[in-house]
Specification:
By secondary structure, this protein is mainly alpha-helical. It has 2 domains: 158 residues, no CATH class; 107 residues, Tetratricopeptide repeat domain (Serine Threonine Protein Phosphatase 5, Tetratricopeptide repeat), CATH 1.25.40.10. Helix 6 packs antiparallel against helix 7, helix 10 runs antiparallel to helix 11 and helix 17 packs antiparallel against helix 18.
Length: 374
């Protein structure tokens, strides 16, 4: 990592081109520069990684996925649409790590406090940018402090029911404990100033909380409302709609789950094409639902399509390839063809063992599946 020597150059370059520090940090996360743990699984397969972030950053679309929370004045809201060469240049030239980026964010908050005052909206936005960065880095406790600071300023400046304040509540809820998060979300949703754009993340997060608390009925209610808002505001084939359909599929009966996941797959194909990892992710999710319904041949077909897409886009040794292999093997086993399933399970185990380690839960699951065939 190049530290110290490039610190001032990095800040100067960002200021010159008005590139959001939050945007740069997301590019760093997406490219694995400082935090490879940013690749988090959306299901047991571990097949939900920030590919859409990479695509957005590299091909001229804003890298910020939390734009619905970015309200109020801010110097850094003018995001440069980065092209592929610019992203590569940033990563290779500066190699920014977590410590450097955090320091830059914290220094920006301090400068805003000094230049504009501790209660200025620009200070609030700087605090929120720091909060988003810390959230991406997995430091929810520190992120909560930054979001709370921005929220206090916005509430004092605009009022508790202003859109800025409601957005701040939703951001704070995302990094708070379940009890505090639910209270914040319900308070924001009860506000007369709540709008569809803000309701999408609020209802989605509240649904996640209810599902985690063992209340699938309450979760489904929240997610259905979130889906209605997403389709009304961003269209029926938006990323938000695809994500919420997946969430809904986890809490309904198998028949409806298959229908929801088929819709999500159609959206993914529309957004990213047939060979994109995100599309293959949807195919794996649908295959698992088909397995639950006893539709083993259909499940194998979906999983084979996912395997082809993963191998083409990620290479033959990627853990997502192992996910697809295991799913095909599971479908073959359910059809009574354990002999054909064994080499697939073995290949999945070898991939996960090399990529994730022998003690990773996915590697251990592969080993258990292999032993069960004996």
């Amino acid at each position: 990592m190049l530290l110290g020597v490039y610190d001032k150059q990095l800040v100067a370059w960002l200021s010159r081109y008005r590139i959001s520090m939050y945007s740069l940090s997301r590019v760093s996360v997406a490219t694995g520069v400082y935090d490879k743990s940013a690749i988090r699984s959306r299901n047991k397969a571990g097949v939900h990684a920030p590919w859409r972030r990479i695509g957005k950053a590299c091909y001229g679309v804003t890298a910020r996925r939390n734009s619905h929370l970015d309200v109020g004045p801010s110097y850094y809201r003018g995001l440069v649409q980065l092209n592929f060469k610019a992203v590569i240049w940033i990563v290779l030239a500066f190699q920014p790590d977590h410590a450097l980026l955090r320091k830059v964010y914290e220094d920006h908050v301090s400068r805003c406090e000094r230049d504009y005052g501790a209660n200025d909206p620009r200070t609030a936005q700087a605090a929120r940018d720091l909060g988003f960065f810390l959230k991406e880095a997995g430091d929810n406790k520190a992120a909560a402090g930054a979001f709370a600071k921005g929220l206090r300023i916005d509430q004092a400046k605009y009022g508790a029911d202003a859109p800025q304040s409601l957005a701040g509540m939703i951001a704070l809820a995302a990094v708070s404990g379940p009890v505090d998060a639910e209270a914040l979300l319900r308070r924001s949703l009860a506000s007369k100033s709540m709008n569809s754009q803000l309701a999408i993340p609020a209802l989605s997060t509240l649904g996640d909380l209810r599902f985690a608390a063992g209340d699938p009925k309450g979760a489904v209610s929240c997610w259905r409302l979130a889906l209605q808002h997403a389709e009304a505001v961003r269209g029926p084939e938006s990323e938000d709609a695809e994500r919420i359909l997946y969430s809904l599929s986890q809490a309904v009966d198998v028949k409806e789950s298959i229908e929801l996941l088929a819709r999500a797959l159609a959206i993914a194909r529309h957004l990213w094409g047939d060979r994109h990892p995100e599309t293959a992710t949807c195919e794996v999710n649908l295959a698992h639902a088909l397995l639950k319904a006893g539709r083993n041949e259909d499940a194998a077909e979906q999983a084979r399509a996912a395997l082809s897409a993963f191998e083409a886009s990620l290479g033959p040794r990627h853990p997502r390839v192992a996910v697809a292999l295991s799913t095909i093997a599971e479908a073959l086993t359910a059809q009574g063809n354990a002999r054909a399933a064994e080499p697939l399970y073995r290949r999945a185990w070898e991939i996960d063992r090399q990529a994730l380690g022998e003690k990773d839960p996915r590697t251990l699951e592969d080993a258990r599946a292999l032993n069960a065939l004996k």
